[in-house]
Write a structure and sequence with these properties.
The protein is α+β, with helices and mostly antiparallel strands. Helices cover 52% and strands 20% of the residues. It contains six helices and seven strands, in the order H-H-E-H-E-E-H-E-E-H-H-E-E. The chain has helices spanning 2-41, 44-71, 84-101, 121-138, 169-172, 190-200; strands at 80-82, 104-110, 117-119, 143-152, 155-161, 204-210, 214-222. Strand 4 and strand 5 form a beta hairpin. Bound molecules: adenosine-5'-diphosphate and magnesium ion. Adenosine-5'-diphosphate binds at residues 130, 134-135, 138, 162, 164-167, 180-183, 186-191, 215.
Length: 229
């Protein structure tokens, strides 16, 4: 019976996710369908405007599908010893221009002798891209983001601290649920992907936040192979 229950639980999670995906994709599709009709009668000026909206709706569908593909099975993944220091620097370089445009400074503080993490490099990179992106997007005025890496017993801890809008306490508990977003162009899938990646690495993710002051995300990942992966 235990197995049965697990299976039905899985099915209901799948059902919820499928319902969410269907809903999120149907909205832009409905709008695209409407604009396709309008387009034929529109004159040149308004047509440009319609095309701009249609492009942004298509981008939205594209974003949702790309993020879902990251959690979709099966992907050939290989666990290997990964240098987190290099990985963090490459993620910072990737998102630096986004930060500079908003006058945000990113500080990186890495302890000496950080051991490699046993993990899937691409997934870990995606994890930090999603988290750093959220940190940057949470800040609408200039400020600082601090990234710290510390060595613990058999694990390392990566902290990402921003000075952004913060997360209300009742939302902290439900982070990782699909399609929760407070952003106009958000998908609400980034954190779901992060939780999934962390789980696959036998790690933990912890959020603490003060509204109006900022958010701290702490990721702990083992530096020795996890049993069973
Ligand atoms: P998205 O970024 O597309 O909205 P995410 O799953 O990455 O989706 O994040 C979900 C929501 O969690 C965000 O819309 C935001 O409200 C909140 N959030 C996540 N990270 C932060 C952060 N560092 N600061 C403030 N809010 C955050
Ligand atoms: Mg995000």
């Amino acid at each position: 019976t235990e197995e049965l229950m697990l299976k039905s639980e899985k099915l209901s999670v799948l059902g919820e996710l499928a319902a969410g995906v269907a809903h999120e994709i149907r909205n832009p599709l409905t709008s695209l369908k409407g604009f396709t009709k309008l387009l034929s009668d529109a004159d040149d000026g308004i047509r440009q405007e319609y095309l701009r909206i249609m492009e942004s709706e298509l981008n939205r569908i594209n974003d949702i599908v790309s993020e879902l593909m990251l959690v979709a099975k099966p992907q050939a993944v290989s666990f290997e010893y990964t240098n987190i220091k290099d990985l963090i620097y490459s993620v910072v370089r990737l998102l630096e221009t986004q930060a500079i445009i908003k006058n945000i400074q990113i500080w990186v503080n890495i302890q000496d002798k950080i051991p490699p993490v046993y993990g899937v490099e691409n997934q870990l990179k995606q994890l930090f891209i999603n988290l750093l992106k959220n940190a940057i997007e949470s800040m609408d005025a200039e400020g600082e983001i601090h990234i710290k890496i510390e060595n613990r017993n058999h694990s390392i801890v990566i902290m990402i601290m921003d000075q952004g809008c913060g997360i209300p306490p009742e939302r902290l508990k439900t982070l990782g649920e699909p399609f929760y977003t407070t952003k106009e162009k958000g998908t609400g899938l980034g954190l779901m992907v992060c939780f999934k990646i962390i789980e696959e690495h036998g790690g933990e993710i912890r959020f603490s936040s003060v509204e109006g002051q900022g958010t701290k995300v702490e990721i702990e990942v083992p530096t020795i192979p996890v049993q069973g992966v």
